[in-house]
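re: the backbone from monday

yeah here it is again, tokenized this time
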């Protein structure tokens, strides 16, 4: 029995708080050589990575699942096999190919970055993190990933997977996002002098396949003996997090106009902002205090050729969740003669071609709710 104020024996204290030590990078690299994921953008062992492919995949992988990215990545490479091909393309073509992948500012930055690489760097990606960060859409993580994987620079790309690995290794008590600088410092100190690119990918794989958010497979982890969280049996308690406030619900309405010849009315969203530059089925603004009774005024602006009584409200609605807020849309449908012309700022698209437009996932949900063929 320990009395109040009595010192805890050193042996017992060590059992509760293991000494923090730097794990051996060679063990992780050996694990990676044996158990790495086969991904379409990864160069084979002994083959130099293509900076363009590394950059393209890293932009696509931001907040997007690997399985989803794989499909888009192959299509992009087929259409734009080099950074020069991408730079020469029209933005509309890039947005159409990106449609459904989400976070559309990435597509706009992707196109702008390709043009900068061609204009400022003669079509070759710079090798240093500092120069890479000057490119549109390339932040700390992406610059480090390209520098390490494509050029084998001693850099530490720190994404959510890596943050989780490091937070558990060192039992970092500060919560995310406050802990980000501390986690980055730990990660940078782990990078070996050789095989920095493989090490970066090994860290990503370790977090994605073994050191997972729930039920991590510590038996397969090459660093389990060095992990403080594992020693304390608290793997799932790291990283610490500040509870995330849920965004307020916004509402709005969408107006589906179909001509007798099967064409559908669409327009392009403003170049900046949410879903910037994408094609949309016209609708109202989205607001917390949206009043459906006011939707008629917007409908008159969007389609003045449709009488108020000709709009048919579809049962149910469309729900979509953006990063910062959920959205609910009421959908109205109207059918008009084939002689109707689109108002300024809008256009009619033949229904068979609608699927190839730069429609974001939200608008595809609207089309599906209206039971348009092909959606």
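seq for it, each position gets an aa:
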């Amino acid at each position: 029995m320990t009395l109040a104020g009595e010192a805890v024996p050193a042996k017992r204290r060590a059992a509760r708080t293991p000494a923090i030590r730097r794990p051996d990078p060679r063990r992780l690299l050996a694990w990676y050589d044996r158990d790495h994921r086969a991904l379409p953008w990864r160069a084979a062992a002994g083959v130099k990575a293509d900076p363009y492919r590394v950059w393209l995949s890293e932009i696509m992988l931001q907040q997007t699942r690997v399985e989803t990215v794989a499909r888009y990545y192959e299509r992009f490479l087929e259409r734009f096999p080099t950074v020069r091909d991408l730079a020469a393309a029209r933005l509309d073509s890039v947005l159409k190919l990106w449609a459904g992948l989400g976070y559309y500012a990435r597509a706009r930055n992707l196109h702008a970055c390709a043009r900068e690489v061609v204009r400022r760097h003669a079509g070759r990606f710079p090798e240093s993190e500092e120069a890479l960060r000057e490119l549109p859409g390339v932040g700390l993580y992406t610059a480090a990933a390209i520098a390490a994987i494509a050029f084998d620079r001693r850099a530490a790309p720190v994404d959510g997977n890596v943050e989780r690995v490091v937070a558990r290794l060192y039992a970092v008590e500060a919560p995310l996002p406050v802990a980000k600088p501390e986690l980055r410092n730990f990660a940078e100190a782990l990078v070996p002098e050789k095989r920095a690119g493989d090490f970066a990918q090994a860290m990503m794989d370790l977090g994605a396949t073994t050191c997972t958010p729930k039920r991590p497979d510590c038996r397969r982890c090459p660093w389990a003996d060095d992990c403080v969280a594992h020693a304390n049996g608290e793997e799932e308690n790291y990283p610490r997090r500040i509870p995330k406030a849920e965004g307020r619900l916004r509402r709005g309405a969408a107006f589906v106009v179909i001509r007798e010849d099967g064409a559908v009315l669409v327009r392009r969203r403003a170049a900046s902002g949410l879903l910037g530059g994408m094609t949309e089925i016209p609708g109202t603004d989205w607001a917390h205090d949206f009043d459906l009774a006011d939707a008629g005024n917007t409908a008159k602006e969007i389609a003045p050729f449709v009488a108020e009584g000709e709009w048919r409200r579809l049962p149910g609605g469309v729900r979509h969740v953006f990063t910062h807020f959920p959205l609910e849309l009421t959908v109205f449908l109207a059918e008009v003669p084939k002689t109707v012309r689109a108002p300024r700022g809008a256009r009619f698209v033949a229904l068979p071609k609608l699927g190839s437009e730069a429609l974001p996932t939200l608008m595809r949900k609207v089309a599906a709710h209206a039971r348009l063929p092909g959606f």
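The chain is about 40% helix and 10% strand. The longest helix spans residues 105-121.
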